[in-house]
């Protein structure tokens, strides 16, 4: 064999498996039903086998019995009989057909070979992309990752799940709720967790509020509580603040010391051990921060996939959605935010983790007598409301009233909950170290407030 011949590679396929699948379909209707759920015509490598499979599908769609006679007639009608080797070839499929009982096994071989061919095709296309678009590195990487992910999911499509294991999973979940265990990632706020049963996998949670309400502080509290109380691994994308600023907030909040005193060098000596203890507690937490500015959604997806693959994160935070850019030019900012919102929901499903994305609210809040946010206040896109599984608003009356009786009080408003109740959760807020707490702790921080 010449060196040239040695370098010729035949695309992955199994002629034996393809023939076995077609033969089983021709002798057993139930086998045909199974195969149709697993394979498409493009999964067949050999052209005449692909033609025969298409004819079988046409017979199936016309509600006729599938056998060698009906398929031969369909091939004649399509003027394809000669192209597959005549009636003799089709009849031969039935005569050499193995047991139809094993048709799932044969079908999966054909499917696996098809996926391998597609991987080769993706690699070839990516090679062409690299040479043609050398300046679009991130775009090429994102396209490759998404295409390969789609291929990995392809073999799972259209498969039915037996009811029994789903019933068991649901009953176990209900049992956990009965004993007080959460089915999702806990927020650390009792009343909120009672309503949401935690942040659920694949959910997109929007946490929105006007400036100075404490969106970032509350998100950091959620992250801290999940990491320290539940030992969850956290991904935190901070597009507005640096990682150093976030860690400063985490430290002063955990230590319960005055953040302004720390920044101005006026922290009393007796408070420094608190910071040391806080640093020790946080150093063991699984919180991963990315403070890349000017991220686009494509870059964020790539980073999130890497974070999930390397650290198996349990929940992802994004601060905040309006600072993200689309990876392609859009006609309007509203379309761009809609695209980003849909992409975040798709990413939550892909990674199978909850994504908590912070969001700004429009100025319409300021023009009303009651400054509590409503759904129409979500800024720049109604798509955020549609894509979100949960919408939370943070509201502190003291920001507007400046009344002493409102100081230290806050509300987490559950404005949307796709799978459960809405409502208002009362919380406390300590502004000097930017920390939200369960309401019962308020009098330890503000003893002068009425009970």
Structural account:
This protein has 2 domains: 152 residues, DNAb Helicase, Chain A (Orthogonal Bundle); 270 residues, 3-Layer(aba) Sandwich (Rossmann fold). The protein contains 19 helices and 9 strands. The protein has a 9-stranded mixed sheet, with helices on both faces.
CA radius of gyration = 29 Å
Strand content: 5-15%
**Mean of all residue-level pLDDT scores:** 82
Query: How many distinct helices?
Result: 19
Q: CATH superfamily name of the largest domain?
A: P-loop containing nucleotide triphosphate hydrolases
Q: What fraction, in percent, of the residue positions are helical?
A: 40-55%
Estimated structural class: alpha/beta
CATH topology annotation of the largest domain:
Rossmann fold
Q: CATH top level of the largest domain?
A: Alpha Beta
What topology emerges from the helices and strands here?
Blueprint (H helix, E strand, L loop, with lengths): L2 H4 L8 H13 L1 H10 L8 H15 L6 H10 L8 H10 L7 H30 L4 H18 L8 H16 L11 H7 L7 E6 L5 H15 L3 E6 L4 H13 L3 H5 L8 H12 L2 E5 L6 H15 L3 E5 L13 H19 L3 E6 L21 H6 L2 E6 L2 H4 L7 E9 L5 E8 L4 E4 L3 H4 L6
Helix pairs in contact: 2-3, 2-4, 2-6, 2-7, 3-7, 4-5, 5-6, 7-8, 8-15, 11-12, 12-14, 15-16
Defining traits:
DNAb Helicase, Chain A, Rossmann fold, 451 residues, alpha/beta, 9-stranded mixed β-sheet, single chain, 2 domains, 50% helix
Quick recap of the structure?
This protein is α/β, with parallel strands linked by helices and 451 residues long. Helices cover 50% and strands 12% of the residues.
């Amino acid at each position: 064999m010449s060196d040239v011949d040695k370098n010729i590679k035949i695309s992955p396929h199994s002629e034996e498996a393809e023939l076995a699948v077609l033969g089983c379909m021709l002798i057993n209707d139930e086998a045909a039903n199974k195969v149709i759920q697993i394979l498409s015509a493009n999964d067949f490598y050999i052209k005449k086998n692909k033609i025969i499979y298409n004819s079988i599908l046409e017979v199936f769609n016309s509600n006729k019995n599938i056998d060698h006679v009906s398929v031969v007639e369909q091939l004649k009608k399509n003027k394809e009989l000669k192209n597959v080797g005549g009636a003799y070839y089709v009849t031969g499929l039935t005569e050499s057909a193995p047991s139809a009982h094993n048709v799932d096994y044969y079908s999966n071989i054909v499917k696996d070979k098809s996926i391998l061919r597609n991987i080769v095709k993706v690699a070839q296309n990516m090679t062409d992309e690299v040479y043609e678009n050398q300046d679009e590195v991130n775009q090429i990487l994102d396209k490759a990752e998404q295409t390969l992910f789609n291929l990995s999911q392809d073999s799972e499509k259209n498969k039915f799940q037996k009811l029994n294991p789903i019933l068991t999973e649901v009953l176990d979940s209900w049992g956990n709720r009965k004993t007080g265990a959460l089915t999702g990632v806990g927020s650390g706020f009792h009343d909120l967790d009672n309503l949401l049963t935690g942040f659920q996998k694949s959910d997109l949670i929007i946490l929105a509020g006007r400036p100075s309400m404490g969106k970032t502080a509350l998100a950091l509290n959620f992250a801290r509580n999940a990491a320290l109380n539940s030992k969850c691994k956290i991904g935190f994308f901070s597009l507005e603040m640096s990682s150093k600023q976030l860690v400063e907030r985490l430290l002063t909040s955990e230590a319960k010391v005055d953040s302004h005193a720390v920044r101005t060098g006026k922290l009393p000596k007796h408070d420094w051990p608190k910071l040391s203890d806080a640093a020790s507690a946080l150093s063991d937490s699984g919180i991963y921060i990315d403070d890349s500015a000017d991220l686009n959604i494509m870059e964020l997806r790539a980073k999130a996939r890497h974070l999930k693959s390397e650290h198996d994160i349990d929940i992802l935070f994004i601060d905040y959605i309006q600072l993200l850019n689309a990876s392609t030019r859009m006609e309007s900012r509203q379309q761009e935010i809609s695209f980003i919102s849909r992409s975040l929901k798709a990413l939550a499903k892909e990674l199978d983790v909850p994504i908590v994305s912070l969001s700004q609210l429009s100025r319409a809040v300021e023009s009303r007598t009651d400054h509590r946010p409503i759904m129409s206040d979500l800024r720049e896109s109604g798509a955020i409301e549609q894509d979100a599984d949960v919408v939370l608003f943070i509201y502190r009356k003291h920001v507007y009233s400046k009344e002493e009786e409102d100081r230290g009080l806050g509300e987490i408003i559950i404005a949307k909950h796709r799978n459960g109740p809405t409502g208002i959760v009362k919380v406390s807020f300590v502004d000097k170290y930017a920390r939200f707490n369960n309401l019962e702790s308020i009098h330890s921080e503000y003893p002068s407030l009425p009970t």
